[in-house]
């Protein structure tokens, strides 16, 4: 009986020591990349193992934490990416008073060596202490955190620079509902229901894999014009409860946030 009690106690302790990744802790969902708050304040997060390291990239600062020599935390000012011409590869050159770091982010499927989780970006880090001659090289996986402000329902107000009216569509204004945590959207195109995926990186937003129902639309319905503009989007801005979608050529769509 004593042995059974000891075994149960050991199992209980082991369960208590498990990672909280993917679980809710004090109202926040955590993952291998951190908490929801981390994802809201950082546009890109990455981690690696053996030794463990973490990277959090925000608009104001970039923070690198590792267990290379004890617990090391390095803070760098934010810098612009150096972009490759022929591939989705970005390089960041970071430096402060004590260290220099080169971060390379490549759009390539990456598997965490411990959890087995699949991420869309491969990340490599070269870190050099200013007092040392050689840099340490680390590999890991990462992801862009889609702007949480997009997570809402948006109703169309302008299309290709012109105000829209209900008479431009079947029965009501087009709308999209964006799920930023799943990078998906659904809504109404002005005649048919629509849905699809969003691709997000810092400063980049694309609506892709757009599908719709096949209801016949009345003559003059501008659904086709709307969906074409949606799929031509590359950038966005949010201000005064308005979501503006654009590309380098023009402002395409303006939506109003609704509850």
TrEMBL record:
Signal sequence range: 1-21
InterPro entries in the cross-refs: DUF306_Meta_HslJ, HslJ-like_sf, Hsp_HslJ-like
Superkingdom of origin organism: Bacteria
Stretches assigned to the DUF306 domain: 152-255
Annotated keywords: Signal
KW Signal (keyword) present: yes
Keyword Signal appears in the UniProt entry: yes
UniProt-recorded name of the protein: Heat-shock protein
Organism: Flavobacterium johnsoniae
């Amino acid at each position: 009986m004593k042995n059974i009690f000891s075994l149960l106690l050991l199992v209980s302790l082991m369960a208590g020591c498990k990672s909280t990744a993917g679980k809710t802790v004090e109202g926040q969902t955590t993952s291998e990349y951190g908490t929801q708050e981390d994802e809201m304040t950082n546009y890109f997060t990455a981690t690696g193992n053996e030794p463990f390291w973490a990277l959090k990239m925000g608009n104001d600062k970039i923070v690198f934490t590792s267990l290379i020599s004890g617990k090391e935390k390095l803070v760098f000012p934010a810098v612009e990416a150096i972009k490759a011409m022929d591939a989705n590869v970005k390089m960041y050159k970071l430096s402060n008073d004590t260290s220099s770091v080169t971060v390379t982010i490549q759009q390539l499927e990456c598997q965490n060596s411990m959890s087995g989780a699949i991420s869309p970006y491969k990340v490599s880090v070269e870190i050099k202490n200013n007092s040392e001659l050689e840099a340490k090289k680390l590999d890991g996986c990462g992801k862009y955190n889609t702007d949480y402000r997009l997570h809402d329902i948006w109703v169309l107000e302008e299309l290709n620079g012109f105000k829209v009216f209900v008479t431009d569509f079947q029965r009501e204004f087009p709308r999209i509902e964006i799920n930023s945590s799943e990078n998906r959207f659904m809504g109404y195109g002005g005649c048919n229901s629509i849905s699809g995926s969003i691709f997000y990186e810092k400063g980049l937003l694309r609506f892709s894999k757009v599908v719709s129902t096949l209801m016949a639309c009345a003559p003059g319905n501008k659904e086709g014009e709307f969906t074409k503009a949606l799929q031509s989007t590359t950038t966005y801005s949010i201000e005064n409860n308005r979501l503006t979608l654009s590309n380098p050529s023009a402002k395409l769509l303006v939506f109003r946030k609704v509850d």
